[in-house]
Design a protein that fits this description.
The complex is a heterodimer of chains A (379) and B (605). By secondary structure, chain A is α/β, with parallel strands linked by helices. Chain A contains 16 helices and 16 strands. The radius of gyration of chain B is 28 Å and the shape is globular.
């Protein structure tokens, strides 16, 4: 069982209109205070997990490239001292491809970060403006090149399904992406989430969202082009060359153990033979106060039943091309018959699941209606 | 002079008010009560006789009420007026008939701007059949659109009643109310009961009161009804002691006795209204009257639908609510049934569509129940090959066609009054619904249509269609005619080859194609796309008459990763699960209950 630690940095220079993550804009950030708070929460989590090796660390946000390298260094030191890192550890940090942030890449690398994930989002100037990004195409390209020089592994994110995006323009953009990328890329669809400025603009009619049918075609096109270039679509929105998978994200998708550190972070942990979910208070100031007072910013832990664990494992695992091993499902559910056989058969004959006696795996067609497949399987 | 004081029979006037919905009957009653000083102004609230919220809100009267008033007539004498407030709607014509039977006179109230409506007709004819003296009253003359002469003309043309001495009033402002009271005193006859004869009283109505027990509304015909008297209910053959005698003013006032010609109430230690029979004759146990009153035909439910709780755990609550409503509504019939599509519920029988609507509304309002009503249907007489007859009031109970000799369905006689310009469309509507035209006449610029129509074509959405075609101007009334044989079939709706019991219906063969096609098309829009292809079919016997295919869902994923936040995904799944609770499985297909509900709710267009 792999073990990963997610560290949430909740601040950004500005908030992107589509973002509904736990991200905040603040003028003054007391990095020393954050270092102390991260350390205290890590120590609390260590008391829960006991000694074991950490396989991955992921600094997410927010914009973690706004962290002082010293803060990153401190967190990694604490982790190293408490648990220790496994031999093939992966430490990823999310970064914005701005000039200022790129200047810190070397320092992050020196603290022990060995993988960087850049939020490029688009390689078309006006789309970057629409997405409210504070960098341009040129900066993004430079940041990608710089990251490739400094870090052994890297990835970047691009959002498609943008308003007025056509197949031919996406095809051209994918060509640029293929030229730039080294090993790993995440290609997401734009979702208009409630509570975001984008949702408001959309509701007001400021722009027209791309129709679902068009997004479907872009999805198919993405898969087609990326696999034709030898990239494996190992997860719904992730593409990579062999060995370049995000090991940290694989922990989520394979439903292994992970600790969530920082405001709003989620975790799934084993403690004293129990499986718990942890969820921290979202507001940075409150989280800090709680940690300083109680040693952690968590809401009460929730114990998961074996059925709930099975459900979560299916929800996450079916995103992966490799699927989930049936043995794993049996052990999670603590029964020889974790899923309704008739329902599985129906999906196989419909061509949505592979007829695989070892694993539950969706076909290409099944992946396209994944939400319905998951709901059906778990019914 | 007090209301409780004895007044000779020659100065008693018993009258009912007949009016179309919205023609201001209850407001007029309020004004009569106020003018006679039955209640102080501060005690008045609008529509004082309509006790139920639903009566006040919808402006209709469901139960009969009486109130005793005193009025000094033009001759200077004090008269006792007993006002009987009656329901105006056809569904409650049974209640109207017994109200009328207890009066000597009636006020026919017509809205000065609307004129005579179809529903008024039936009630006036009932009053005439009961030999009641009728005073035409033109109401709402305060309105700018009031046209008293035209309303009078219509009363003469449509009803054939002399309207030359109609009283024009405004219930709202109280204008000419004293003239009306004088007319009641001078123009309506006094009752002519025999004070010396054995007690004979008509049981007009009864209801359950949590404090008094069953309260019985009575009209004394002969003799007197006294507190402490041992009385016999001739029809049910029960003997009881009268423990309370009283009148409504409209407040309860207890008296020692009621004399001939008087109206009031008694209680007699009765716990359930089922022990009282409306129309029964109450007489003295020792000195019985020789001849009982003719009584009334019991009310028979004609319209049926099933009611299911949206939340299946509320089945018991639904049962209790129905039982509570049935306490005061002898015409409400119900029995438990189980549906594969909708779970446990009740098949209910109603007097008509309004009755059904009111019961549903009261259940939702007074008992806070969320209900799924199935499409209304009627009772069928099914004659089987073995020579027996079975009454079928739920399509799923229809025997196999091979065992059926013939099916008879109820027909009605309908009267429709409509402005001329909608006549063409209404004729077409009646023809489409298998109607037979009986008569067509004109009253000024309004057409009066008489049609025979099968009731099952009416219960579906006829009234809504009529109102929408005529922009609300046509009025409609019906009464049951007779059962007649029809080419009736059971149409099943199949989803992936499995029949959805809640959607089965009995239809005339000539209507089955249209109805089947509509229902399939509608379900195709209502059922969310599934991982599997869904076939929606309408079938008669084994024969498919309509089919729609819902293609399989092949795209619903949004490629976005939520990191370690499985909770977000969970929420999605929980939402789906919550939805699934209200799902019914048909083969590979999960159909939300809401799709059935929507299919049941929509009209035919």
């Amino acid at each position: 069982m792999s073990f990963g630690i997610y560290v949430h940095w909740p601040y950004c220079v500005s908030k992107c209109p589509y973002c509904d993550y736990n991200a905040h804009v603040a003028t003054h950030i007391d990095q020393a205070r954050w270092r102390r708070a991260y350390e205290r929460e890590l120590r609390t989590v260590y008391d829960l997990t006991g000694p074991r090796l950490v396989d991955t660390v992921f600094f997410g946000g927010g914009t973690p490239s706004l962290m002082d390298p010293e803060t990153v260094h401190h967190v990694l030191n604490v982790i190293q001292n408490l648990w220790g890192m496994s031999a093939v550890y992966e430490v990823t940090l999310e970064a914005n491809p701005t000039t200022v942030d790129s200047l810190k890449f070397k320092a992050f690398r020196d603290c022990g970060v060995n993988r960087i994930s850049l939020g490029v989002q688009s390689l078309i100037e006006q789309d970057l403006t629409f997405l409210g990004r504070n960098h341009d195409v040129d900066q993004a390209k430079k940041a990608i090149h710089l990251a490739q020089d400094i870090f052994p592994r890297m990835s970047f994110d691009v959002i498609y399904g943008r308003p007025a995006q056509t197949e031919s323009s996406w095809e051209r953009e994918l060509d640029i992406i293929l030229d730039l990328m080294a090993g790993h890329v995440s290609l997401y669809q734009l979702t208009i989430e409630e509570g975001t400025p984008l949702y408001l603009h959309h509701a007001r009619g400021d722009f027209t969202a791309l129709p679902n049918a068009d997004i479907d075609r872009l999805y198919d096109l993405t898969h087609e082009i990326m696999t034709a270039h030898g990239y494996s679509n190992y997860e719904v929105s992730s593409f990579c060359k062999p060995g370049e998978e995000s090991r940290h994200n694989l922990i989520y998708w394979r439903y292994h153990d992970y600790a969530g550190i920082g405001p709003g972070a989620h975790g799934r942990l084993q403690t004293h033979g129990k499986f718990i979910t942890t969820r921290a208070h979202r507001a940075p100031d409150i989280w800090l106060e709680r940690v300083e007072k109680d040693g952690h910013g968590y809401h009460p832990f929730i114990n998961l039943t074996s059925r709930e664990r099975l459900e979560e494992a299916v929800m996450m695992g079916l995103r992966l091309e490799e699927g989930i091993e049936l043995e794993r499902l049996k052990s999670l559910a603590q029964t020889q018959d974790p899923l309704n056989k008739e329902r599985i058969k129906a999906l196989i004959s419909e061509g949505l699941l592979h007829d695989d006696p070892q694993s539950l795996r969706v076909t290409k067609a099944g992946r396209k209606c994944l939400n319905a497949v998951i709901a059906w399987v778990l019914q | 002079m007090s209301l409780t004081e004895k007044i000779p029979q020659s100065r008693i006037r018993n009258f009912a008010i007949i009016a179309h919905i919205d023609h201001g009957k209850s407001t007029l009653a309020d004004r009569l009560i106020e003018t006679c000083g039955g209640l102080e102004k501060r005690e008045m609230k609008e529509q004082i006789l309509d006790n139920m919220d639903i009566e006040r809100e919808r402006g209709i009267t469901i139960k009969a009420q009486t109130v005793r008033l005193n009025w000094k007539g033009p001759d200077g004498e004090i008269y006792q007026l007993n006002l009987m407030d009656t329901p105006g709607h056809v569904d409650f014509s049974y209640e109207v008939s017994r109200s009328l039977a207890s009066c000597e006179g009636a006020l026919l109230v017509v809205d000065a701007s609307q004129g005579v409506e179809a529903q008024t007709l039936a009630n006036v004819y009932q009053a005439l059949d009961n030999n009641l003296e009728i005073i035409p009253v033109i109401n709402k003359i305060d309105l700018p659109a009031a046209d008293v002469d035209r309303a009078k003309q219509q009363i003469e043309d449509v009803i054939g009643l002399d309207a030359s001495n109609a009283v024009a009033v405004s219930g709202k402002t109280g204008l000419n109310i004293t003239d009306l009271l004088d007319a009641i005193v001078t123009r309506l006859p006094a009752p002519t009961g025999d004070p010396a004869a054995p007690t004979k009283a008509l049981l007009v109505d009864s209801w359950y009161d949590s404090y008094l027990g069953v309260v019985i509304l009575v009209r004394v015909i002969d003799g007197t009804l006294k507190k402490g008297q041992k009385v016999r209910f001739m029809n049910t053959a029960a003997t009881r002691e009268v423990d309370r005698v009283g009148i409504f003013t409209p407040k309860h006032i207890l008296l020692d006795q009621l004399g001939p010609g008087e109206m009031g109430f008694i209680t007699a230690g009765i716990k359930e209204i089922s022990e009282t029979k409306v129309g029964d004759t109450i007489t003295d146990e020792k000195h019985q009257t020789v001849k009982a009153l003719p009584g009334f035909k019991p009310s028979v439910p004609m319209v049926f639908c099933s009611l299911f709780p949206v939340d299946s755990s509320e089945f018991e609550k639904l049962r209790e609510s129905l039982a509570r409503l049935a306490l005061n509504d002898a015409s409400l019939h119900y029995e438990a049934e189980s549906s594969q599509a909708l779970g446990m519920g009740f098949r209910c029988g109603f007097l008509g569509l309004l009755h059904m609507e009111i019961i549903q509304e009261r259940m939702e309002r007074e008992f806070n129940l969320d209900l799924i009503p199935t499409a209304p249907s009627v009772v069928y007489k099914v004659y089987k090959t073995d020579g027996t007859m079975q009454e079928v009031y739920n399509p799923v109970d229809l025997p196999d066609m091979a065992r059926i000799e013939k099916i008879e369905e109820p027909w009605i006689k309908a009267t429709i009054l409509t402005p001329d310009e909608y006549l063409g469309s209404l004729l077409q509507l009646c023809q489409e619904r298998r109607g037979e035209q009986l008569n067509l006449s004109y009253v000024g610029n309004r057409a009066m249509l008489e049609y025979r129509l099968p009731l099952n074509e009416i219960v579906f959405d006829f009234y809504d269609r009529l109102k929408s075609i005529s922009r609300g101007y046509a009025s409609f009334d019906y009464h049951l005619d007779k059962f007649m044989e029809g080419d009736l079939v059971r149409m099943d709706i199949l989803v992936n080859q499995e029949s959805v019991d809640a959607l089965a219906m009995i239809v005339h063969r000539s209507q089955s194609d249209r109805r089947g096609r509509h229902l399939c098309e509608r379900l195709k829009d209502l059922i969310p796309r599934q991982l599997f292809k869904v076939a929606i079919q309408a079938a008669i016997g084994g024969k498919v008459i309509a089919r729609e295919d819902l293609s399989a869902l092949r795209k619903d994923v949004t490629a976005r990763c939520y990191g370690g936040d499985v909770t977000r995904k969970r929420k999605l799944l929980d939402k789906q699960k919550e939805g699934k609770k209200k799902m019914r499985q048909y083969g590979n297909v999960d159909i939300p209950q809401s799709a059935f509900i929507a299919a049941l709710k929509m009209g035919d267009e």
